[in-house]
Amino acid sequence: MKPVIFILGISALPLAQKLKLALDGEIHTPDCVAGGDVTYSKATAHAAELFTNGRTIIGLCASGILIRAIAPRLKDKRREPPVIAVAEDGSSAVPLLGGHHGANELARKIASLSNGHAAITTASDVRIGIALEEPCEGFVLANPQHVKAAAAAILSGAPIALYRLPGEGRDPVNPFPQLPMTEWTPAFAGVTVKVTEAAEEGSARKLIYHPVTLAIGLGCERGTDSQEVSTLIAETLQGHGLSNAAVSCYASIDLKEDEPAICGLGNREVRFFTIEELKQQIPRLKTPSDIVER
Predict the structure, then answer these.
(1) Fewer CB within 10 A of the end CB, N or C, for the chain?
(2) Strands 92-97 and 117-118, how do they pair?
């Protein structure tokens, strides 16, 4: 869903319009202000409803207004959407909630757009310069339940290392390129960052990040049940020890663009290719099939 740029008066509209274009946002204004996308009658009630519905809120208003509106709705910080208070002149952007779930990064973007300051207060960002829940684009954290303990250990002085097997010639891709990491050894006693497509359990001292790099090629007979395809995907990943979180997309031939069992897989992008495009990849096939080629 688009982030909501929430304003109280027309004076905030110029900045709201600038943020809308840059962030693909949606401007919400009071009934008396034109130029927005959605109007509301009562500010606190509307902000509370947006928060309850899981909408990211960028409030171009005093932080106290947002705090009073959403405070009664606070329940679970792991599920609550980001809330950012931004001064009308763009001079400051304050992540109020969801700092490690997108609010800090969004505040930085807003500050850059408005030549302002992102008031980041979360300890890990301030002390070590990263939010463990927010790896760079293309990675997914597999065990967020362990982040609090891992961050506490790092803030207490524990080193952090990027995992690789002894003797490997190259470093794995780092989900935090801005943070130099200690060389990992089997005796390492700090916090380990492991990058893998494999389905693996993490811990308070081992954070697992999946690179979103897998593509699943799909094909089926006409009229195949969608549940059969979904089950096959899950069983195939499990059989190869791979994490579903590492899947970037599904792919098939363009003849299947109208096949419900394939185009109805809504949890990932589905990409379709022509016969000519697929034939170019035949030399790369590990297990070619004459039946499929025909």
Answers:
(1) C
(2) parallel
